[in-house]
Amino acid sequence: MVTSTPRSGKTDSAKKRSYADAKDRGEQGDSPQTKSLRVAIEAGVRFYQALADWAVWAKTVPPAAPPADQGP
Q: pLDDT tens, 14-64?
């Protein structure tokens, strides 16, 4: 069985954002492809962060259960 070590979402997000920020500063050029990559990276980071935030929230909420009395 393969086990994996959980990774920190904030660390991954920070790395991706720093790469995107370098793109913004023009360290890798300013072409349409670069701008497209920047937008895609930012979208991925926001999506990943939203899922990570949801997962943290979901741990704090009790599971939904049907009402105890479901008589006719």
A: 877 787 777 677 777 778 888 888 889 889 999 999 999 999 999 999 888
Instruction: Please report whether residue 4 resides in a domain.
Output: no
| pTM score, whole prediction | 0.52
Q: Which residues contact 36 (CB under 8 A, 6 or more apart)?
A: none
Write out the two tokens for 58. Answer: 């979901």
Q: For residue 38, is it within any domain?
A: yes
Percent helix, strand and coil across the chain, each rounded to 5? Answer: 60, 0, 40
Q: Residue 48: give the domain boundaries.
A: 9-58
Is 63 within the bounds of a domain?
no
